[in-house]
Amino acid sequence: MTKAVLITVDALRKDVTYSDRVDTPNIDRLMSKGQVFDKAYANGSTTPSAFPAILASSKSNDGIGCPDTRTVAEAFSNEGFETIAISTNPNSGPYNGYGRGFDHFEDFVKSGAEKEEKSFLFKIGRRIVHSSDTLYSFVRKNRSKLDLPYERAEALNEELFSRLEEGEDQFFFVHYMETHNPYLPPEGYVDTESEAWKDRFDLNEEVRYEEPREELNDKIWELYKGELRYLDEQIGELLDRIESLDEEVIMIFTADHGEQFGEFGSYFHPGNLRNIQINIPLILYGVKAEGELFSHLDIGPTLLGALGKGTEGFDGMDLTEEERHAVTVNLEGERCVVTPDWKLLDTEEERCLFDIDDYLEKGNLAEERKEVVEELEPMLETVPAVQGIEI
């Protein structure tokens, strides 16, 4: 029997995941046992634009939900797998069509009414208790329980563990919202004496409305890294449980997109094709893929191909059988093509050529290497898609 597991993490940057900037022993353990792709690319820079490739192997990235094509879950279901999804983001959930093909979809999304009610109650409570330092400190300490718009990874793991059935072929999809904003890690994952921790609620408000500045960037980074430390602990719990099974396990760990911390004048994940947004971490476990390049389009075909199952009807490639030589991504106003050596980025303002190892894209070589630009230009897709909304 086989367990196929697809793990996606919201807004997780590759440079943080693969470096020692944060102590992540469990992700490191996964990397040591798997195949790590440095040149893996999302098909969009927001959750709505990225997920058609992830769950349907579709180039569509218009941000309006699951395309009307064969989904990865439907393919696994047709092969006799029980299919289970666990998510806490509406853009990767059944309300946007991604429940198709899943036998069970545990949607942890908190309803708008619940969030509005809790936010309203907090605002009233804050006014009432503001004159009392003790009461106000209590409310601030518990604000994350009132305002956090998603469930913690621990709750998602508990649901997954409850549905693991030994002796059954099962396909699991789980989408963790750590490390998406608001950056509110649980207590114990950031120095509680730091300004970042003490001001975490105000910082999450400031980062939404203020222009990037170094002091704010540094504090927000600390909160983001705290989220990743917590997530890493939960990834360890998942690995321990999965590896305890006496069954074949294949797994892909990736992010739907990255996150900006003041780079290019923005926070969060605006609609652009910068490496920070689309050059995402991707780790294969129990699967051997060919070549250096990996597109999110290839997730479904490669998982199915590893099991000798059919991959018809997908835009992606089965990388257990063939090598990808280029990745193209197309959003409104921006296009790019990536090869093992170069990235050509075409925007409304400029055309840039970057060495593939220039992750932060600081050296535009378009004028210096015109022959490379001419070689890659025909590979740029010419019909722009519509960028999805940010969440």
How is this structure best described in words?
- The chain has 391 residues and is α/β, with parallel strands linked by helices.
- It has 14 helices and 15 strands.
- The chain folds into two domains: 2-109 and 151-317, Alkaline Phosphatase, subunit A (3-Layer(aba) Sandwich), CATH 3.40.720; 110-149.
- Helix content is 35%, strand content 18%.
- Helix 8 runs parallel beside helix 11 (214-243).
- Mean pLDDT is 88; it is low at 111-133, 135-146 and 383-391.
Percentage beta strand: 15-25%
Question: What is the fold named in CATH at topology level of the largest domain?
Answer: Alkaline Phosphatase, subunit A
The CATH architecture of the largest domain is: 3-Layer(aba) Sandwich
What percent of residues adopt helix (DSSP H or I)?
25-40%
